[in-house]
Design goal:
Residues 17-356 form the Enoyl reductase (ER) domain. Pfam families: ADH_N_2, ADH_zinc_N. The structure is a single chain. This protein is of the alpha/beta class. The chain has ten helices and 15 strands. The chain has helices at residues 60-74, 153-166, 184-194, 205-213, 229-236, 250-258, 272-275, 286-291, 309-322, 338-345, and strands at residues 5-11, 24-30, 39-47, 94-104, 114-120, 124-127, 133-135, 173-176, 197-202, 219-222, 241-246, 260-268, 295-298, 329-333, 353-357. It is globular and about 65 Å long.
Length: 361
Amino acid sequence: MEVMKNKFLTITTNIEGQPQESMFEIKTQTLPPLENNDVLIKCLYISIDPYHLPDKPHEAPEFITNFCGSCIQNHPWNVELIDEVKLYICQAINGSGVGRVIASENDGYEKDDIVCGLLNWAEYTIVKNENTLRKLNTMEEFPLSYHLGIFGTSGLTAYGGFFHVCKPKKGEKVFVSAAAGSVGNLVGQYAKLLGCYVIGCAGTKQKVEMLKEKLGFDDAFNYKEKTDLNSTLRRYFPDGIDIYFDNVGGEMLEAAIANMNPFGRVAVCGVISHYTNSQKQVTPNMIDVIYKRIMIQGFLVSDFYTNDFKDFMPVTTDYVRSGKLCVLEDISHGIESIPSAFRGLFQGENLGKKIVQIAQE
């Protein structure tokens, strides 16, 4: 293999609180020769996700090791996530990505194969563990970036979290927080396709209008303009909430619980309000939870790798192909744009799935 230079992204300091672009640094390295079973991949797209920023950094390795153990056992793609999916000083950052094989010493991969898996935030990644990759059965009618969003973990999280955890029924009243995000927008769309009444919240007027006009939500509101979330939800749900899909936590969860109907279900997908806030967090009224017999369940996308995936792909593909599901992608370009993209994720700047395109397909 010819000598190749590779730009990659790392951090210069531990990130506490809101991430800043100045905390990242682009470095250049010379790629070493490939060893037996190595696969050299040119990164095309990388996914920007909040899981890179742990709520408790010192617990991250143990958490991820346990999380990955579940993935190894349950993942039909045979994708093994490893314990470097967090941010460590001076180390290459990695996460979900799509790329093209440009050289291989592994019999399972050939030049020009398109793969998805654990890739560095870099121009190139040498993958030494083939279990962190899977070949994509690419559908030419859809962009490759869809495999990081609607056909990837965002889509499966929305599908499994809504249908498996919430167990919805036609006509039920559904509230979705962070409804313009990568998961929330899909939950709302799945709920509407089932025949539910759906209200979403977001952080800008543009997002609120998009939820109503483009995605078909029954209504939506800008939570930043509301001083009393409890009263706000009571106005939108005079007969109570049956299902709350929580991407936020904090005061939004507290208000939703206060407005839940008996035997309501809460799927806790994320708590982005907690990730960069070290202050004591608001908790829901547990008396409401008891007397209303409310079910609150957290989940991981790996919970759905076996039971739900075989239904998720054909159903979602058909919905996208027919135009019943709208795909929201927020794509930046170039490795230099990653710090800004990551910072923006925690400030609600993304509309749909945040992706960075590293190179042309």
